[in-house]
Structure to design on (168 residues):
């Protein structure tokens, strides 16, 4: 995405806001990527929308919305959200969404969750927070997605999860 596309993306999502929280987000990202990062340079921004979401662009821009920041209670929750977004950068195929149906998009999100677990563990964050964030954001996802993602994360973390999730 060129700089015009990035600017359009930012405007579409409430515009980039100047917020001191960027420094904290940058510290968490630095811890998550460590010294062995071979992806694009990461640039962090906060978007002014109240939507509860986070985004990553193939260019390495990572965004967290004001709405997402409002619901985060711990640094581990922030790390979980960021690790998921960074996991998309590790696999370029995640950005090829043209023509994907809902089931394929769910698989992409779930795979990113599973890749994020190792990054959280390596950086010293609580990986179970990723499953908690998926649950916390259940209303922001298509029906059935949160349960499917949480079950896959429980399997990845080796935790029993006996809830009755319906898989789409």
């Amino acid at each position: 995405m060129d700089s015009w596309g990035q600017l359009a993306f930012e405007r579409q999502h409430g515009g980039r806001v100047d917020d001191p929280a960027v420094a904290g987000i940058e510290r968490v990202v630095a811890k998550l990527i460590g010294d062995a990062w071979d992806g694009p340079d990461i640039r962090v921004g906060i978007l002014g929308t109240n939507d509860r979401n986070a985004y990553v662009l193939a260019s390495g821009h990572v965004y967290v919305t004001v709405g997402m920041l409002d619901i985060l209670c711990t640094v581990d929750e922030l790390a979980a959200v960021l690790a998921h977004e960074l996991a998309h950068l590790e696999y370029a195929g995640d950005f090829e969404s043209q023509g994907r149906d809902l089931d394929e998009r769910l698989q992409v999100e779930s795979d990113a969750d599973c890749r994020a677990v190792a990054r959280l563990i390596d950086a010293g964050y609580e990986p179970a927070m990723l499953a908690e964030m998926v649950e916390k954001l259940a209303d922001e996802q298509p029906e059935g997605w949160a349960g499917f993602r949480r079950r896959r994360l429980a399997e990845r973390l080796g935790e029993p999860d006996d809830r009755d999730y319906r898989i789409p």
In short: The radius of gyration is 15 Å.
